[in-house]
Design goal:
The complex is a heterodimer.
Chain A: H1 2-19, E1 35-41, H2 50-57, H3 67-71, E2 72-75, E3 80-84, H4 93-102, E4 106-121, E5 124-128, E6 135-139, E7 152-158, H5 160-163, E8 172-180
Parallel strand pairs in A: 6-8
Antiparallel strand pairs in A: 1-3, 1-4, 2-3, 4-5, 4-7, 5-6, 7-8
Helix pairs in contact in A: 2-4
Chain B: H1 3-18, H2 28-32, E1 40-51, E2 54-57, E3 59-61, E4 68-83, E5 86-103, E6 106-115, E7 118-130, E8 133-145, E9 162-173, E10 176-186, E11 199-213, E12 218-235, E13 240-256, E14 259-278, E15 283-291
Antiparallel strand pairs in B: 1-4, 1-15, 2-3, 2-14, 4-5, 5-6, 5-7, 7-8, 8-9, 9-10, 10-11, 11-12, 12-13, 13-14, 14-15
The chains are: A alpha+beta, B mainly beta.
């Protein structure tokens, strides 16, 4: 009889807790200036992600004065890692990708907030950030309208499939999600 | 020397100095970490159980001569992650135990203390990361080495090499943790007539993650543990061993960064023992672990 009681209590507890699960996946991504937001599969426990945080905190382009002392904020409820970036340093998305993979997780999307000038180069549209000279290859429906508009601020998503293979200095492909002309 | 090689050497040196650990289902937090390549960790855990309750089969019987059993074990446990799917763990116990046995109708107090039998395990895991959850299944072959002393009248070691295998699965969301472990120990005959029976066990942990601070990377888990054991009839250096046992109780875990504190209480709700034995009694666990 005690065995039955235990199993009943256990299954009831399981159902109650399972019913409380967060459904945060559909939340809108907001990316502040000088930040990058990485959506990461499986990142639901910060104790488990301690190694990921440690690996990311070694990246030289992070602003270590933010989010405690390492420039990395792991949000287990939205399954995102927010990185504080130094505006005068170039972003290396391949390093971010490798650090997260080494930590045992899988990045699925990376969102960035960019400020710069857009120019056309052949059939490509390139956004250059004046603070650090980094170049992004942007794409999107209205991207032509951004050319020669002076400094603009946009948010977009980096192609995660290509993150690991991008070499330093190569334009980072970004699909725009919200262009705003300043 | 490269960083990785230096870490490995540091880890081996740590083992030599401190000992280290293997992680069973009653340590689900150390199952969570370190899951990163070249990660390592150790924890110190105090496990205590005491009882003066005599059990024959499923029934409690009188204990007029005062048979007692008390075991306090300090575990030094360590783990190294070669890569996410492969971990090595070592568990080194220091045992301090006493019991009162009956010889020719006279109660006799016996005790033993010292290094116990060391357990080494190789955790082979397969992870699945989903949008808002992570899970893994694992198979863990283990070996228990006869490092424990057999010189005391209550031996802390049994002198045999035992082999174990564990199959486990864990499922985790931001506020939910589940861990299940089915294991089997093939116990060999040891010294002093000790021949513990083989043991099969099942542990389940379900946990709620009610509090977490993203910025400070700290939080609390509240868990419930259920442990079931079935051990074949055997004997230790005093008498018959083996039977069935079910215990359960709450677990509290606090973590901050790579540090984890754990406290656990387990109560035996069901026992069915061969012949007449002292119950295992309620069990307390308290420990602190570090992952790097």
């Amino acid at each position: 009889m005690p065995m039955k009681k235990i199993l009943y209590l256990y299954s009831t507890l399981s159902l109650i807790i399972a019913g409380n699960a967060y459904g945060a996946d559909a939340l809108t991504v907001t990316v502040a200036r000088n930040q990058a937001v990485v959506q990461v599969k499986g990142i639901v426990c910060s104790f488990c992600a301690h190694g990921t945080e440690k690996a990311l905190s070694k990246l030289s382009f992070l602003d270590k004065s933010q989010f405690g002392d390492d420039g990395v904020l792991i949000d287990i409820h939205t399954h995102r890692i927010i990185l504080a970036l130094q505006s005068d340093r170039k972003l290396d998305v391949a390093q971010i990708y490798r650090a997260i993979k080494k930590g045992g997780y899988d990045p699925s999307a990376m969102h960035v907030n960019l400020r710069g000038q857009v120019r056309r180069s052949g059939d490509r549209f390139l956004l250059t950030c004046p603070d650090n000279g980094q170049v992004f290859e942007i794409s999107g429906n209205d991207v032509e309208t951004l050319v020669d508009k002076g400094l603009i601020q946009v948010t977009g998503q980096v192609d995660t499939e290509r993150m690991s293979a991008l070499e330093s200095g190569q334009p980072i492909p970004v699909a725009l999600t919200s262009p705003e002309i300043n | 020397m490269k960083g990785g090689a230096r870490k490995r050497l540091l880890f081996i040196a740590g083992f030599t100095l401190l000992g280290s650990t293997q992680v069973w289902a009653h340590q689900p937090v150390m199952d969570m970490a370190p899951r990163w390549k070249d990660g390592y960790g150790f924890q110190i855990r105090q496990e205590s159980h005491r009882s003066d309750k005599l059990v024959r089969g499923e029934s409690e019987v009188d204990n007029p001569l005062g048979r007692v059993n008390e075991v306090n074990t300090t575990w030094l446990e360590g783990i190294y992650t070669f890569k996410r799917e492969v971990r090595l763990s070592v568990k080194l116990p220091y045992v301090d135990q006493q019991r009162t046995v009956i010889h020719d109708g006279v109660p006799i107090r016996q005790s033993g203390s010292g290094l116990g039998d060391t357990i080494v395990g190789l955790l082979l895991k397969r992870y699945t990361n989903e949008d808002s959850a992570t899970s893994n299944i694992a198979i863990t072959p283990s070996i228990r080495l006869p490092t424990g002393s057999r010189s005391d009248d209550y031996s802390v070691g049994d002198g045999s090499i035992d082999l174990g295998i564990s199959f486990s699965a864990s499922f985790e969301k931001a506020n939910l943790y589940q861990y299940y472990d089915l294991f089997y120990w093939k116990n060999q005959a040891g010294d002093k007539g000790i021949d513990e029976g083989d043991e099969i066990g099942f542990d389940a942990n379900i946990g709620w993650h009610p509090y977490h601070d993203n910025l400070k990377n700290q939080g609390v888990f509240l868990m419930w543990d259920v442990s079931a054991r079935i051990q074949k009839r055997g004997r230790n250096d005093e008498g018959v061993t083996g039977g069935k046992r079910l215990s359960t109780g709450p677990v509290f875990v606090y973590y901050r960064q790579g540090t984890m504190f754990r406290a656990e209480y387990k109560y035996p709700v069901y026992e069915d023992l061969y012949d007449t034995q002292v119950s295992r009694g309620p069990e307390f666990n308290v420990g602190i672990g570090f992952a790097f």
